[in-house]
Amino acid sequence: MTYPPPPQNQPPYGQPSQPYGAPQQPQYGQQPQYGQPQSQPSYGQPEPQYGQPQYGQPQYGAPGQFPPPGSQWEPQTPPPSGTNGFAVASLIFGILGGILFAVIFGFVALSQIKKRNQKGRGMAIAGLVLSVVWVLACGAGIAISALNEPERDSNGTVTGEGSVSSVELKLGDCLKKLPAEGLVNAVDVVPCSQAHGAEVYAVFNLTGTTYPGSDKVIKQSEDGCSERVDALTADAQKDDTLEIYYLYPHTSTVWTRGDHSVTCLVGSTNKQYTGSLRK
Asked: Residue 202: which of 176, 177, 218, 222 has the closest Cα?
């Protein structure tokens, strides 16, 4: 009696057909059972749970990934890229009184700053504000000047006191007082029937196309006013308290601007007169 032959490809007695922990291969025609993993994890490595990301898989919120659904996306604005040049120019012209340029550069700067995320918004606004201040100041000055302008009749004779520019003095104007030595911008005039300290008795223009220099201008002005004292009354010519003064173009800038006129004054610093001193 013989034993049946051992099956082929069977391991020796006592040896498992598969090493411990090695994945079991399903037999031909046999499907793996539901819920059985195809491979066993190595010792020390926990089996990943359902819904947990495995190692190496990107998670929501990681760099380079889109934010998870429901989170709010906040766009990042670029950092400021320096100060806007038009804003600086607007502030400078606003300080110097360049109203037109300050306004133009100010609005251009505000438009560019918003688009380019630049600095200088405060300077642009300051330039615009200073422009408004200059406009208001100029308007106030014009209004005050108009209110202070003296009244004149149809012949140009002063009938009401006021203030005029020194270059706007006319023949026969009487000054409330003699102006101080030096640069004279404006003087106060009154009707000659009121007490006054000086009177314009002559006005003439210096000749020449180029500025002859301060010394020559003073010499020509003094000589011209001395030659015209005959316009004064005989009593005025004999009055030792009266002196001759003159206003003249004192710089080349004034000369280039077209002011070549000399205004001759007769009066006194310590005495008042009533009535005209001219013939």
From this structure: 222
The CA–CA distances, whole Å, from 165 to 118, 148, 277 equal: 47, 11, 22
Instruction: Pull the structure tokens for residue 104.
Output: 């133009």
The pair of structure tokens assigned to 154 is 């149809």
User: Whole-angstrom Cα distance, residue 211 to residue 92?
Assistant: 33
Tokens 């990301």 label which residue? 53
Nearest to 223, CA basis, from 174, 262, 249:
262
SS3 for the chain, per residue?
CCCCCCCCCCCCCCCCCCCCCCCCCCCCCCCCCCCCCCCCCCCCCCCCCCCCCCCCCCCCCCCCCCCCCCCCCCCCCCCCCCECHHHHHHHHHHHHCCHHHHHHHHHHHHHHHHHHCCECHHHHHHHHHHHHHHHHHHHHHHHHHHHHCCEECCCCCEEECEEEEHHHCCCCCEECCCCCCCCCCEEEEECCCCCECEEEEEEEECCCCCCCCHHHHHHHHHHHHHHCHHHECHHHHHCCCCEEEEECCCCHHHHHCCCCEEEEEEECCCCCECCCCEC
Tens digits of per-residue pLDDT, 37-61? 555 555 555 555 555 555 555 555 5
**What is the C-alpha to C-alpha distance for residues 264 and 222, in angstroms, rounded to an integer?**
9
Q: Of 263, 267, 276, 265, which is closest to residue 192 (Cα–Cα)?
A: 276
The reported pLDDT for the residue numbered 149 is 81
Share above pLDDT 70 across residues of the chain, in percent, rounded to a whole number: 69
